[in-house]
Amino acid sequence: MTEQDDTGSGPIRLFLVDDQELVRAGFRMVLDAQDDMTVVGEAGDGAAALSAIPVVRPDVVLMDIRMPRVDGVQATQQLSAAGPSPKVLVLTTFDLDEYAFAALRAGAAGFLLKDAGPAELLSAIRAVHGGDAVVAPSTTRRMLERFVDHLPSGAAADETAAADAAERRLAALTDREREVLVAVGRGLSNSEIAAELFLAEATVKTHIGRILHKLALRDRVHMVITAYETGLVGD
Fold first, then answer.
1. Per CATH, domain 161-230 is 3.10.180.10
2. CATH number at 12-144
């Protein structure tokens, strides 16, 4: 993503990945009608997307999960591994889809149900592009709870070692930053965190930025996952 894209000077550049042409056409019709968005490319599977995305350099990729050849999880993993990459918004049919969970862990910035209305779709794209919020945080939280067994927790005999490892991982955080991480893990928005912790919203954003830096996390979604992995949320 370019510096120009990050500052918002120009429409959000979108790339559509879905194996159903009618689905892509429907999304394109809605998205191209927005003054602040433009569809710069599309692909019918992950392999074609991985070839085209470096060329057209979109800001946000709308990524289907279940596709032939290379699925959305594999495509997201390869985009993330390639270095600076567009934000990936996962499209899924079910809100408790293990594939969507895998895509979040692979580097996706959020996910959205395919039957979401136009207003929700547009809001989700803008949120992901801005990097300020997880898409549908309460749904993300429910999905993580559903698949918490997939997170590395260890057997009962390893619980002490796991707890020690989690504590070492979180050692760099201040008490306030831990509180903010817990709140993000619970699915609260910045404004909700500010109200709960009696902070200015700008201060919440500052804490989130510091947490991301200290724990070397990609984005807010991975803050949620980290809160579960370390036992701060979900026990």
1. no
2. 3.40.50.2300
Pinpoint the residues of the chain covered by CATH 1.10.10.10: 161-230
Between residues 151 and 108, which one has the greater pLDDT?
108
CATH 3.40.50.2300 domain extents, the chain: 12-144
The residues facing 62 across adjacent strands are 16, 89
Q: What are phi and psi of 211, to 5 degrees?
A: -65, -45
Grade residue 112 by pLDDT with cuts at 50, 70 and 90: confident
Work out whether strand 87-92 and strand 110-113 pair parallel, antiparallel, or are unpaired.
Answer: parallel
Residues 183, 222 contacting (CB under 8 angstroms) = no
- Cα–Cα distance between 139 and 1 in angstroms, integer? 27
CA distance 192 to 235: 22
3-state helix, strand, coil in the chain (%, to 5): 55, 10, 30
Convert the pLDDT of each residue in 135-169 to its tens digit: 555 555 666 666 555 555 444 445 566 667 778 88
